Amino acid sequence: MSYIGNSPGTVAGAAITMADQWRLTEDHSANSDITSNWERLNLASSGTIGTGMTESSGIFSFPETGIYLVMASVAFVPAAGDGTTILYLNVTLNNSSYTQVSWAIGGNQASSATNSSGSLATIIDVTDTANVKVKFEAASLASGSFIRGGTTQTESSFTFIRLGDT
Questions:
Q1: Percentage of the chain exceeding pLDDT 70
Q2: How do residues 74-83 score in pLDDT, each as one tens digit?
Q3: 105: Cα within 13 Å, side-chain hemisphere
Q4: What distance in Å separates the CA atoms of residue 76 and residue 147, rounded to the nearest whole number?
Q5: Burial of residue 64 (number of CB atoms within 10 Å: 0-12, 13-18, 19+)
Q6: Structural domain tally of the chain?
Q7: Would you place residue 99 in the very low, low, confident or very high pLDDT band (cuts 50, 70, 90)?
Q8: How far apart are CA 121 and CA 130, in angstroms?
């Protein structure tokens, strides 16, 4: 058996040193940045590797430089006929201006509200923890549509994994 790196399950320079997962604790129905109702998963089966992310008013900061995989799995509840519901992942490289880099999309063409889901995944090169940050933005939610949140089970999850060095 051969290994890449020093031991089984590791790749030189690419050991996972941080993994963290967050969720929305309440439904979000505004076309806006999601600035509140965040919590780190706290289920008995939840686990975190390393320091984890920090969150302030919906802005997530990385604990150290590196290459990160950022994922979201979103439960949408679109109102009747709301054909498009969106969650954007926005990234800043200068702690100021944000760019939409990825999106999760759902929708509903039915005549009554229904469940829909969307997911996104993006790899981000965090070269400066003071300046590179991410936030999530809800968009294209018609009246009566929302992104589902809750505290007894994870309905919309947000995962951050440090894959290796930058």
A1: 92
A2: 999 999 888 8
A3: 6
A4: 5
A5: middle
A6: 1
A7: very high
A8: 22
